[in-house]
Amino acid sequence: MSLLTTSEILTDDPGAIDACVRCLDGGGLVAFPTETVYGLGADATNAQAIARLYLAKGRPSFNPLIAHVADVHAARKIARFNSDADRLAQNFWPGPLTLVLPKASACNVAELATAGLETIAVRVPAHPFAQRLVAALGKPVVAPSANRSGHVSPTSAAHVRSDLAGKIDLIADGGPTEVGVESTIVGCFEEPILLRPGGVPRAAIEFALGRKLADLPADHGEAQPLAPGLLTSHYAPRAAVRLNATHLEAGEALLAFGSARISGSDRAAVALNLSERGDLTEAAANLFGHLRALDATRATRIAVMPIPESGLGEAINDRLRRAAA
Ligand code: TXA
Ligand code: MG
Fold it and tell me: Atom 21 of ligand 1 has which residue's CA nearest to it?
């Protein structure tokens, strides 16, 4: 990724909210303080911006992101609440609690942010700057912790700078964060499950719910939030998926990459290109949407052209291999 100039602004500068909103609206990446840790924000409805975000963080795969919204009303537009979720929102929002819920049918968050899952992680941050920012943008903001993948989460603007300067557009410096650990993540399904311990203690959540939280299996790593089959599975197309296709067979739909044409592609009933100009960031932004669109046709198999392993290519290929498995 080419180097950007990363600007910095203090959160109590009177122009700070405006500058952040303008940047996010333009598809930019803004690091901002929440009460837990600094988040790296992008417009949740803009798949291109989200692809840039994964690239800046150096995420090895498209780990799903948390959508930050201003209040429970905004949360209901993107996620479906059951009674446990209602109760937790009432007790702990705004605050360091993230709920994983089924996506609402009108959810406008880009597929890339939820890594093709049927669920979405939602949080209403309590930090006054984060609050004002998401309210002023008027759209959900996806924000993973603002660190390079594999590093610890940043609790100051200096941490963000040392990990991400030159890779993001703007850092809003609000001093050290208050909570310092990430939000607690609870999945609200038939039974509530603790997906990640964090800023709200388990006991407080169990007290509010009047029952115990289930746990993930002990060997479950953060990198794989939900094992396929446990609560929900990664996006698996109905059609078979054939990788590294160098020719197209009869009846196959084509998922192309780049400007090259493979033999048989002129006969494709349906073809979509992840990025005509061979740009992996653009390809990442289009990946889940294109897969779904091709799967919605009657093709029994989707042939995917080879995609380089560099940059976001590693994550794209990871997801394609899962889709093909
Ligand atoms: O405190 C926080 O939560 C911070 C601040 C910035 O809000 N954010 C944060 O984001 O910690 P991140 O991306 O570093 O961690 C989000 C976690 C990941 O482990 C991800 O796998 C999980 O949330 N997650 C997101 N969507 C999910 C989903 N649909 N199902 C299960 N886990 C999900
Ligand atoms: Mg993180």
Answer: 225
